[in-house]
Amino acid sequence: LQYLKASVSGRPQSGVDEDIEITLDDYVLLSPEAISIRPEDRPAIRELANREPLALIEYWAVDPDYDGVVFRSVWQDYRGNTLEDGDPLRVVTRAILTVERRATPRTVCVRAVDVFGFESEATIELAGLDQ
């Protein structure tokens, strides 16, 4: 019913660490008609999904070393958390994770849950870095 698009927008290195900057780029709710809501609310949901799709995200989390099986969240943000942006109605759309730099490739996995309870996932493959 939905899909999530995320990207790595920065990867600065410092010593043995690197900062992976992850950005939520887009969220698409493919079929608002499949959601169990009142028919009169559907136009408003459709309009919001078209105008500001990331406003539908309730919660998102990041695993910077996803193994393809077990998701280990090391960073998360949720609607109502105002520590980063002061907006209780939206999640932040950017995260910076400090991780150990390594020569082997890594898979970053981003999982999000929308306000309807639907979960979506995006994975990003990153090349290894010279030590």
Summarize this structure as a short list of keywords or feature phrases:
131 residues, mainly beta, 4-stranded antiparallel β-sheet
Give a brief rundown of this model.
The chain has 131 residues and is mainly beta. The chain has one helix at 42-51; strands at 2-10, 13-14, 17-29, 57-63, 75-78, 94-100, 106-114, 119-126.
Tell me what you see in this structure:
The chain contains one helix and eight strands. With about 130 residues, the chain is mainly beta. The strands form two sheets. Strands 1, 2, 3 and 6 form a four-stranded antiparallel sheet that branches. The chain has a four-stranded antiparallel sheet with strand order 5-4-7-8, with no helix packed on it. The longest helix has 10 residues, at about 40-50. The protein starts with a strand and ends in a 5-residue tail after the last strand. The mean pLDDT is about 90.
Give the count of helical stretches.
Answer: 1
Query: How many strands appear in the DSSP assignment?
Result: 8
Shape: elongated
Estimate the helix proportion, in percent: under 10%
What oligomeric state is this?
single chain
Structural class, from secondary structure content? mainly beta
Instruction: State which percent range the strand residues make up.
Output: over 45%
Largest sheet: 4 strands, antiparallel
**Regions with little confidence, pLDDT below 50 for 5+ residues:** none
Supply Rg.
Answer: 16 Å
- Termini gap: 41 Å
| Topology order in helix (H) and strand (E) letters | EEEHEEEEE
Kindly report the average pLDDT value. Answer: 89
